[in-house]
Amino acid sequence: MDRPPAPPGGRRADLHAHTHFSDGALSPEALVALALERELAALAITDHDTVEALGPAREAARDAIELVPGIELSSALGGLELHLLGYFLDPAYEPLRERLVRFRAERMGRAMAIVERLRELGAPVDPDEVVAAAGPGVIGRPHLADALLKAGHAETLDDAFRRYLGRHGQAFIPRPAFHPEEAIALIHSAGGVSVLAHPGALVPDGVIEELAAEGLRGVEVWHPQHNATAVRRFRALAAKRGLIETGGSDFHAPGRSTNLGDVSVPASVLVRLKEAAGVPE
Ligand code: AMP
Ligand code: ZN
Ligand code: FE
Ligand code: FE
């Protein structure tokens, strides 16, 4: 992968990481401890559709590491999945909290509708077990897949997705998602800066430029899924549209995904994000 050049002094920031409040494996405390072990100067926690990790993470981080409050909102445009990162938003902002509670309720409703379909299909699972499996996290298909395995209705996770939960499965229901414009507006109203996460190969330039016209402030250039060609493409687009270039490891779990800090950006990126958010240095 093409990495941003290391600045003198080498203060590095990983701006994309998940905790067990979404689909990560680690608690906020354990993630902060890992960030210190990895000698990061700054860490952004960007859980999917929740800010619950940010309070405990701030307590754990204290002055030892700069903790950047973040989120990764699930959004969709037609068939295109667009994840929007928000940095330096105020996790206590009431309209944000309310919208996230409603979003989680929509996800719960979808999970229970899938449970109902599975019952009709002769593959019943215990809804309480599905909810318990999600723990503090946002409920989703992986938890339904686990329940199908436990109940003996599927041989493997793959089998559960192929037969029931995947796009072509018999119990498939699309996930709720924000409209990208709503996600960008929500992030900004909460005092944050919006950044398009890992556009990868699927998102056309035109869509990114449209989002920029709607107020998008940045694009995630450095990400485990971006090869050198992708990095060049997004850098050119960022230069053309005045977007802030960010990056991170999209860390989920030790051993499972790219390790925390293995994709990082110079701390100078934080300066630009703070300027854009109006946060004092
Ligand atoms: P959801 O957000 O509830 O739609 O669930 C999406 C998650 O399901 C993804 O992040 C993956 O972890 C998991 N997933 C999707 N498709 C598959 C698959 N074919 N096999 C295993 N896991 C999958
Ligand atoms: Zn995730
Ligand atoms: Fe994502
Ligand atoms: Fe992510």
Main sheet summary: 8 strands, mixed
Q: Give the overall shape, derived from the CA principal axes.
A: globular
Number of strands: 8
User: What is the alpha-carbon Rg in Å?
Assistant: 19 Å
| Beta-strand residue fraction | 5-15%
| Average pLDDT level | 94
> What share of the residues lie within helices?
40-55%
Total domains: 2
Number of helices: 10
Which ions, cofactors or small ligands are bound in this entry? Answer: adenosine monophosphate, zinc ion, fe (iii) ion
Low-confidence stretches: none
* SS content category: alpha/beta
The CATH superfamily of the largest domain is known as Metal-dependent hydrolases
User: Numbering strands along the chain, what is their spatial order in the largest sheet?
Assistant: 7-6-5-4-3-2-1-8
What is the CATH topology of the largest domain? TIM Barrel
CATH architecture of the largest domain: Alpha-Beta Barrel
End-to-end Cα distance: 31 Å
Instruction: Give, in order, the helices and strands.
Output: EHEHEEHHHHHEHEHEEH
Q: How does this structure look, described?
A:
The chain has 281 residues and is α/β, with parallel strands linked by helices. It folds into 2 domains: 12-93 and 179-277, Metal-dependent hydrolases (TIM Barrel, Alpha-Beta Barrel), CATH 3.20.20.140; 100-165, Orthogonal Bundle (DNA polymerase, domain 1), CATH 1.10.150. The protein has 10 helices and 8 strands. The chain has helices at 28-37, 54-61, 94-120, 127-134, 141-150, 157-165, 180-189, 205-213, 228-241, 268-277, and strands at residues 12-14, 42-45, 66-77, 80-87, 193-196, 218-222, 244-247, 265-266. It has an 8-stranded mixed β-sheet with strand order 7-6-5-4-3-2-1-8. α9 (228-241) links the parallel β6 and β7 (244-247). α1 packs across α2 (54-61) and α4 crosses α5. The longest helix has 27 residues, at 94-120. The radius of gyration is 19 Å and the shape is globular. The relative contact order is 0.18. The model has no long low-confidence stretch (mean pLDDT 94). The structure holds adenosine monophosphate, zinc ion and fe (iii) ion (2 copies). Residues 72, 83, 197-198 line the site of one fe (iii) ion. Residues 140-142, 157-158, 161, 166, 175 line the site of adenosine monophosphate (AMP).
